[in-house]
Amino acid sequence: MTLAEFIAALDLLAAEAPARIAAAADLDAWTEVRNALVGRQSGRLTDIMSGLGALPKEDRREAGQRANGAKAAIDDALEVRRAALAAAAPASGPTIDPTLPARARWKGAVHPVSLVIDEVVEIFRELGFTIALGPEAEHAWYNFGALNFPDDHPAMDLHDTLYLGEDQVLRTHTSPVQVRTLQQYPPPVRVLAPGNVYRRDFFDPSHAPMFAQIEGLVVDEGVSFADLKATLAHFARRFFGAGTKTRFRPSYFPFTEPSAEMDVQCGVCSGAGCSVCKQSGWVEILGSGMVHPAVLEAAGLDSERYTGWAFGMGPARTAISRHGIPDIRILYDSDVRFLDQFTR
Ligand SMILES: [Zn+2]
After folding, report:
1. Most buried among 50, 107, 177, 332, using CB within 10 Å?
2. Does the structure show a pLDDT above 70 at 91?
3. Which pTM does this prediction carry?
4. Exposure class string for 6-21: b at 16+ Cβ within 10 A, else e
5. Distance between Cα 112 and ligand 1 center (Å)
6. Separation of CA 245 and ligand 1 centre (Å)
7. 265 C-alpha to ligand 1 centroid (Å)
8. Domains of the chain, earliest start first
9. Distance from residue 54's CA to the centre of ligand 1 (Å)
10. How many angstroms is it from 63 CA to the middle of ligand 1?
11. What is the pLDDT of residue 323?
């Protein structure tokens, strides 16, 4: 085939198409005409296009452009005819009773805890953090031993931890992800690890046996407590608002030294004292600290060369204080009347 023959075939199709389209008397006929003209299986255009490969290489570009032009013109004509036929078609099917009340339309909402997680992830992503994940059924060594828990630490008690076997637990915090990440990736490390954790707790207004946690970890050479403070204070201002005040209180965790808990000034009473902040004016947001050298060593890093900081927060508690939710169990009830209220 030559380019001239190819173009002639296109011109013929373009010349025939309008009359055939106009002749389609209903939507069924229209569909038939469309398939005959531009159908992918057996349409005339497809047929013509199949000759494209047989053309000399230098002619293919022009041939392709002309074929596209022809297709666009036929598609336009088809659409005009289809719209006209659809408008003229008599109403079919059951008749509509416009006096009936409308059906309620359900629209999904994002869970308030997921909203918090998404926002936290977004803020730390801006700072160059990536997401790290770990298993919920975790080896006891990752959950405790590698994190510098002494052998007789009460957290390891059957009373607090759900054991799956001799050495396997449902992780009680997201901190095992710290060790797994450090084993896998050389510093510099900047990760955020959101996930569910489990405790041997019964449901009550402020406890749940399963809840979400967000862990953050930074490890590199020369990382200091000043980095921790600056980053977490920045986070608080981004999350709670530009003027948010923060304070750090000394605390203790086996896997950080020194450790600190961060409070933000209560957003409900602006620090004056109310029921949400138990009259203190402050709300505890997260626990943090410099990664204990023993944790770095357990992950195979040289603790003389590297330092790091970490934090852990509970997005459910954050959601509760943010929205003044009186009972944590509401978060787990899957009651759409409650969940429906939260939108981005
Ligand atoms: Zn308050």
Report:
1. 177
2. no
3. 0.67
4. bbebbeebbeebeebb
5. 20
6. 13
7. 8
8. 3-88 (no CATH), 112-339 (3.30.930.10)
9. 79
10. 73
11. 81
